[in-house]
Every structure is written in C-alpha cells, then in structure tokens.
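Bumping my old thread because nobody answered last time. Still need a sequence for this structure:
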C-alpha cells in the first residue's frame, strides 16, 4: 500500500509543478500584443525592444519585457492628439485583447497620462505612458515572473 501512496503523491507534485502559466506561453502572448500596439499608425519614430529579465524574480523564474517608445504624429495632421487621447486609444486596443484596467495603479496629470492594464491569464501587465514631452509614448509590457 505504501508504494501506491508514494506514487500518487509524486504524481500530484508533478502535476502541481506543471500548472499555471509558463513563461514561453506568456512571452508569446506578450509578443503578439506588443506587436499589435507597435503597428498602430499614430506612433511615429518608434522603437521596440524585447528582452528577458531575472533581476527582480525568484530563483528559477524570469520575466519577458516588451518596450515600445515613439512620438505622436505631426501635430498639424493630428491637432487633437493629446496624452489623454493617446492613452485612451492604447487602452481601448489592450481591452480588445482581454486586458483590464488597474485603476489603482493609474496616475494621470495635466500633461502626462499613465494607464496600467493587466491580463490575469497568462500574467501580463502593460503600462502605457503618454506625455507632452518626447518620447510622447512609452509602453512597457511585462510578464509575471514565471518558470
């Protein structure tokens, strides 16, 4: 009877280790969602960087980060572009992709808008900053620390 109990416990431990989001899956979603934001036509002179980071994660885990920065289009063509309008547009795009606003983390002021949106599964957060000074738009997406 004892070997059967040991086998059952071993199987339970193995299944627990495999549950939850994995970094590879979360990173794939992060890349897809980050690329969709990067393709939006009103972010000019943009740069996008993708990297993995372990600095603030527990041993055996790491996170993926996707950063986009750019400028508003020429104000003569888009005279109504403002930090608030830009962040609302990016917010709407992320909501279409299943993200929910983290209102407690938002921080908007007169010339700067910061919105934080989170997708619980697979554990991704985007922070969208739009401001009057260049670079006008900075988007930082990151996964949770995952194995």
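Sorry it took so long. Here it is:
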């Amino acid at each position: 009877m004892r070997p059967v109990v040991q086998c059952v416990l071993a199987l339970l431990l193995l299944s627990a280790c495999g549950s939850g989001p994995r970094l590879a899956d979360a990173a794939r979603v992060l890349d897809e969602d980050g690329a969709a934001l990067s393709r939006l036509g009103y972010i000019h002179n943009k740069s996008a960087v993708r990297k993995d980071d372990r600095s603030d994660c527990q041993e055996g885990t790491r996170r993926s980060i996707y950063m986009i920065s750019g400028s508003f289009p020429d104000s003569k063509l888009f005279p109504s572009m403002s930090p608030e309008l830009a962040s609302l547009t990016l917010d709407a795009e992320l909501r279409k992709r299943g993200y929910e606003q983290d209102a407690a983390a938002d921080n908007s002021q007169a010339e700067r808008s910061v919105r934080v949106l989170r997708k619980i599964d697979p554990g991704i957060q985007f922070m969208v900053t739009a401001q009057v000074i260049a670079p006008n738009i900075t988007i930082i997406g990151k996964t949770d620390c995952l194995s």
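The chain has one domain: 20-143. Let me know if any region looks off to you.
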